[in-house]
Amino acid sequence: MEGEQAIIPLPCKYRAEGCFETVLFNSKFGHEERCSFRIIYQCPIDPVCGQINGYKNMCIHLKNHHTNVFNFVDFVEERESFCIGVFKESENIVHAFHIKQWGLFFLQKVCVGDLTGLFMQVIRAATNQLDFNYSLEVCDHNETRKEYFKGCVLPMEKPTEEIMNTGKYLLLSDLILKTINTESPIMIVVRIWKNV
């Protein structure tokens, strides 16, 4: 009987949150311990917001309360990349992208001292997914100043301080920051793809 249990596929106990993976009995506990649908996240869009949700409810929260900084993408081909350009004002650089079969991606802004950086984080749609890469291109509204960065999308569980220490982000130059601080919009081109 024990041998038969090992080969029976079972649903993840976080199915109601959105995890549709089936795992063998022997690996069910391990999967559920690291399932991205189990983890609770604080809304990264607005610190004042204070909402704390799992993956599924975070998507609903963003759609209902942060529509001005939220894009929903129904489908991206497996070997394609997602690309979007967004105009941003100085106070609102953060943005969220829900790519249905990949996960919930966040363009984050971080400030440490005089330094300001941009980076991407993800809440994955499935725990067995490959890693994602991204690129950011930031330019002023005249496209006279451009900055570019390419790197790995970091998991949402990684603390911001740790990210700043690794240097895995786009450090914005004084010229771009001056443009942002004069209330001129900047253009941010975001590209996300699977690391295959």
From TrEMBL:
Q: What domain of life?
A: Eukaryota
Q: Please provide the record's keywords in A-Z order.
A: Metal-binding, Zinc, Zinc-finger
Pfam families recorded for this chain? Sina_ZnF
Q: Which InterPro entries match?
A: Znf_RING/FYVE/PHD (IPR013083), Znf_SIAH (IPR013010)
UniProt keyword Translocase present: no
Give every SIAH-type domain span: 7-67
Q: Name one GO molecular function term.
A: zinc ion binding
**UniProt protein name:** SIAH-type domain-containing protein
User: What is the organism field in this record?
Assistant: Gryllus longicercus
